[in-house]
Amino acid sequence: MRVDRRNLIALSMRALVCGSIAPMNPALLAAQAAPGAITIGRTDTLWSATLKEQRPYLIYTPPSYRDTIYTPSEYPVLYLLDGDAHFHSVTGLLQILGTGVNGTYVIPEMIVVAIPNTNRMRDLSPTRSQSDPDGKPMPGTAMTGGMPAFLRFIQTELIPHIDSTYRTAPYRVFVGHSLGGITTIDALYTMPSAFNAYVAIDPSLWWDKRVLLNKAKDFFTSPKPPDRTLYVALANTLNADDSLPNTHFNSIMQFNRIAEEYNRGSLRYGFHYYANDDHGSVPMIAEYDALRFIFDGYWMPIQKALARPAFVTEHFEGVSAKFGYRVLPSESMLDLLGTVATGRDTTKALELRRMTTDAYPASGRAWASLGTLLLARRDTSGAVAAFEKSIAVRPAHTATRETLRKLTGGK
Hints:
By secondary structure, the chain is of the alpha/beta class.
């Protein structure tokens, strides 16, 4: 949808004041445990001493989080602004890209912490200002400039709370759209160690005479924490009939020019212009592209792994080096590889099964799968040892116990 200059400003201001999309719908977001319900996540709250208010948040944990089949794991966390608006789209992307649907593991499984707004204009504005992109008075902006306190809440209260409550890995992504986009940029400026990757979707860099844009050159020329990532998405808000310069569009373009010219440090920077999307439609496609950009290199070619199992270890050593913490192939991925390999080459399948028990020694399933393969290869003593380890970590599994009883003559 193309809009003229006046309509663009009106739409943007309405989005800023009202929160981009309709307010959180409890009927949609409260995870009701009714028969037949599909539960995507849950809601919770946290009292903020910084903001002096109770803050709601939405939590999505991946399917394997409470899986009783595979070993409990730790997960990167994606923090999502305008959380009520974007919760379903982001969790859907993570579900299809990272959980093994159709054998797809192009990004890791992740926890999502989606932060709805209580006062969007206050929390997502870096300075006190009541002006629109062209410097004219803007209604509904009496309370602005609360972003520093909001970011302190996230860094000193919300993140520690999530890390103490959930099994989190030391990798965080911060995603925001519009005013949320400048919030992620300001977080990168002021607390670059809080997150590993920052996503700014069509950010409102026009805010307060481009106050954050004016800081860009100093940021890109100064030392930064290593291995940080920034992805910026630009929507098509241009109109051939515009009589005034498009301050919103031009501010993002100028930010990109500064980044491309002065980013000489360790910041990994990505930018894309979405010519077929406007300010409202761009978030979902940009979220997809940002996740693919951030986790570029995570995806492992399955056929290479099946042809040479050692490739799995080599690949994830490289992934770990790139992301700054030890990243293991998921147990479900290794299980899939082992199952496929068993029908092709049991020697390679055995290597994959042993790789799984090495990575997940507390997995009763991994030991049982190894035992089953060893038994098929007529290695009875090896199978017995594997089944005994499976029972040691999963004593209630009657099928494995019965198999072991038969192999040991009733012992």
